[in-house]
Amino acid sequence: MDLRLTWHKPVQLRKARPGSTSIYDLDSTKAPAKPGVYIFMRRFGRKLSPLYVGKAGNLRVRMGQQLNALKLMKGIQNAAIGRRAVVFGEFVARPGQKEEKCLLMIEKALIRYFLSEGHDLLNVLGA
Q1: How confident is the model over 27-74, as pLDDT tens digits?
Q2: Whole-number Å distance between alpha carbons of 106 and 81
Q3: Residue 118: pLDDT above 60?
Q4: Close Cβ partners of 122 (under 8 Å, ≥ 6 residues apart)
Q5: Which residues, other chains included, contact 40 with Cβ-Cβ below 8 Å and sequence gap of 6+?
Q6: For labelling alongside 25, which of 40, 52, 59, 99 has CA 20 to 30 A away?
Q7: Three-class SS string for the chain?
Q8: CA separation for the pair 43, 126 (Å, rounded)
Q9: pLDDT at 126 exceeding the cut of 70
């Protein structure tokens, strides 16, 4: 099956403003209002390490929801040192492909891949 993603450059997470209920903030205009997958990561120098993989029917909306998920954001905050970022892969459907089914397959494949590379994902650790 030919599943395609258009990857966007990583977007750095910012510390949320004082008084906010969130830990991190993100310029939501950087996330497309399209279906796809997203990966919260930490950057240390040029190295990117995945922390959490997710899928969304609308990346912009889902990212807003995730930034308010305290347990997940605490897990990202407590990860090893490095800047926090998120990268988006916009799903490009081919004729006859069902979006939800394809996104689930991509998400699972990315999780399996990162685990096989020895990364500790919050998906598996219960965040």
Answers
A1: 878 899 999 999 999 988 888 899 999 999 999 999 989 999 999 999
A2: 28
A3: yes
A4: 40, 51, 52, 72, 75, 76
A5: 13, 50, 51, 52, 54, 66, 72, 76, 84, 85, 86, 122
A6: 99
A7: CCCEEEECCCEECEECCCCCCCCEECCHHHCCCCCEEEEEEEEECCEEEEEEEEEECCHHHHHHHHHCCHHHHHHHHCCCCCEEEEEEEEEECCCCCCHHHHHHHHHHHHHHHHHHCCCCCHHHHCC
A8: 22
A9: no
Q: How far is CA 118 from CA 37, 88, 90, 108, 112, in A?
A: 20, 22, 25, 16, 10
- In sequence order, what are the residues at sequence separation of 6 or more whose Cβ sits closer than 8 angstroms to the Cβ of residue 16? 22, 23, 24, 25
